[in-house]
UniProtKB/TrEMBL annotation:
InterPro entries: 6-hairpin_glycosidase_sf (IPR008928), GH95_cat (IPR054363), GH95_N_dom (IPR027414). Keywords: Signal. This is Glycosyl hydrolase family 95 N-terminal domain-containing protein. GO terms for molecular function: alpha-L-fucosidase activity. It comes from Orbilia ellipsospora. Pfam families: Glyco_hyd_65N_2, Glyco_hydro_95_cat. The keyword Ribosomal protein does not apply. Residues 36-273 form the Glycosyl hydrolase family 95 N-terminal domain. SUPFAM superfamilies: Six-hairpin glycosidases. Residues 1-22 form the signal peptide. It comes from the Eukaryota. The keyword DNA repair does not apply. Residues 292-454 form the Glycosyl hydrolase family 95 catalytic domain.
Length: 469
């Protein structure tokens, strides 16, 4: 149809008005094939949405009034470097080999259990950083709730209406700006009121050494990781708002009646910064000068240089399938194939990888930068018999070779002390040895845990060996 002038202008005018309203219209995540989404806040840690910039990670339940966001930093591990080489390994090697050759496997396993296990038996473990506790100053019952994780632009969000005001919160973890940012907007000016608090964790606050305000818009919390000579960590949050008032009370930042606000979060440990608190407060004070819109557009551009390298098409799902929330589609896929859900899952894998393996970060450990347990399963360390490798298997076929540098950095770290391990445990002067666990200190801790040999012995003889830990 050929539109004449005035009609064209009128159409454009309506479009602009819709554009303004559309910002607070329903997010309609169902129409975006790159969104994981649902219509309720997370009940458990394991149904929260995760974001990460390689170094910092956040796990977001997306509660309406109370949102307790778990935050991680990739270098927060227990204790300091330790040497775990069993001093009796080398002297008993010949005896173990000869027992195996005589098929006296249980005896070999018994000897190995004393002379082969690491001393101490475990590597260092990964630890959670803390919680960013966001409490909105409004009712906890809302309508029209939707929560999403957008794999196309690497952001998460929540949408709901309380007392006639519609709120949108967006969460991003930016690699270029090295910050986590939470942006809160409302459909009615002056409606954004909340407070922010940092803590180690509901049952973990005894591991927090300090928590205080800095100036009128920033808070800092920190302490030391477990074990002798632990790692110093500090986390901080700053609120920048337009309209309304931002102030501190105790170790909380409060924001009253703003039109919109951004919470900036960062954390450092003394693995990368001499003084984590100064690094945190300096970063937060510098970031305040950059708008959320600019941080987000730089973040999306950076993320998409990786994410947009691959697309996968397995055919179309039915419109009935596409209308369902992700948990419902997951429940249904057992009976009816849902091709676009499979593609979403494939993209989720790429998303997690891009979010947790970036230049100059640690490689993803077992739980990645999304851990809330002080004593996580298997220490959330690097199990190098399969799991670390699995995290990197798809990196080359998805054209992400440039994100594998953290793996090679870790291998380099492991190499020098692996030479010492080869020498002291096996009497071998050339080459290096790594057993099947390591931690971020790979170098001096190179994991003389129970070795493959021991497991092979146990498997062949049916004798249970100490579980590898
Ligand atoms: C998530 O965690 C809850 C609480 O620990 C547990 O009951 C549930 O089985 C978990 N779900 C999955 C899919 O692991
Ligand atoms: C915060 O909530 C309290 C209790 O409902 C209320 O009295 C107060 O006015 C609210 N403050 C703002 C700034 O909305």
């Amino acid at each position: 149809m050929h539109l004449r002038g005035p009609l064209r202008v009128a159409t454009l005018g309506v479009g602009l008005l819709q554009g303004v309203r559309a910002q607070f219209g329903p997010p309609n995540s169902a129409s975006n094939p790159l969104r994981i989404w649902t219509s309720a806040a997370a009940t458990y840690f394991n149904d929260s949405y995760v974001i990460g910039n390689g170094r910092l990670g956040a796990t977001i339940p997306g509660g309406i009034a109370s949102d307790v966001i778990h935050v991680n930093e990739d270098s927060l591990w227990s204790g300091a470097k330790i040497d775990r080489v069993n001093p009796d390994a080398n002297a008993n090697m010949g005896q173990m080999q000869s027992l195996l050759q005589q098929a006296r496997n249980p005896e070999a396993a018994r000897l190995a259990s004393f002379t082969y296990a690491g001393t101490p038996v475990s590597t260092r473990h990964y630890e959670p950083l803390g919680d960013l506790q966001l409490t909105m100053n409004h009712s906890s019952s809302g309508t029209g709730y939707e929560r999403w994780l957008d794999l196309g632009e690497s952001s998460s969000g929540v949408y709901y209406t309380v007392s006639g005001v519609t709120y949108i919160r967006e969460y991003i973890a930016s690699n270029p700006d090295n910050v986590i940012a939470i942006h809160i907007t409302a459909s009615k000016p002056g409606s954004v009121s909340f407070n922010v608090h940092l803590r180690k964790g509901q049952t973990l606050n005894r591991w927090e050494d300090y928590s205080y305000k800095v100036g009128s818009d920033t808070i800092v919390m920190g302490g030391e990781s477990q074990g002798k000579s632990g790692i110093d960590f500090a986390a901080g949050a700053r609120v920048v708002a337009s309209g309304g008032r931002v102030y501190t009370l105790g170790d909380y930042v409060l924001c009253d009646n703003a039109d919109e606000a951004t919470i900036y979060f960062t954390a450092w440990t003394d693995i990368r910064q001499k003084d984590p608190v100064t690094a945190v407060t300096t970063d937060l004070s510098n970031i305040g000068g950059k708008s959320f819109a600019n941080i987000k557009s730089d973040h999306v551009a950076d993320y998409q240089t990786y994410f947009n390298r691959v697309s996968l098409n397995l055919g179309s799902s039915s419109s009935a399938q596409k209308a369902l929330s992700t948990p419902k589609r997951l429940a249904a896929i057992g009976t009816t194939f849902d091709p676009e859900l499979v593609v979403l899952y494939f993209n989720f894998g790429r998303y997690l990888f891009i979010s947790s393996s970036r230049a100059n970060t640690n490689p993803p450990n077992l739980q990645g930068i999304w851990d809330q347990e002080m004593d996580p399963q298997w220490g959330s360390k690097y199990t190098i018999n399969i799991n670390l490798q699995m995290n990197y298997w798809p990196s080359l076929i998805t054209n992400l070779a440039d994100l594998t540098s953290p793996l090679f950095d870790l291998l380099n770290t492991m190499h020098s002390s692996g030479e010492k391990t080869a020498q002291s445990m096996y009497g071998i002067d050339t080459g290096f040895v790594a057993h099947h666990n390591t931690d971020q200190f790979g170098s001096r801790h190179c994991t003389p845990g129970q070795l493959w040999v021991l497991n092979l012995v146990a498997m062949r003889s049916g004798v249970a060996c100490t579980p590898y830990i």
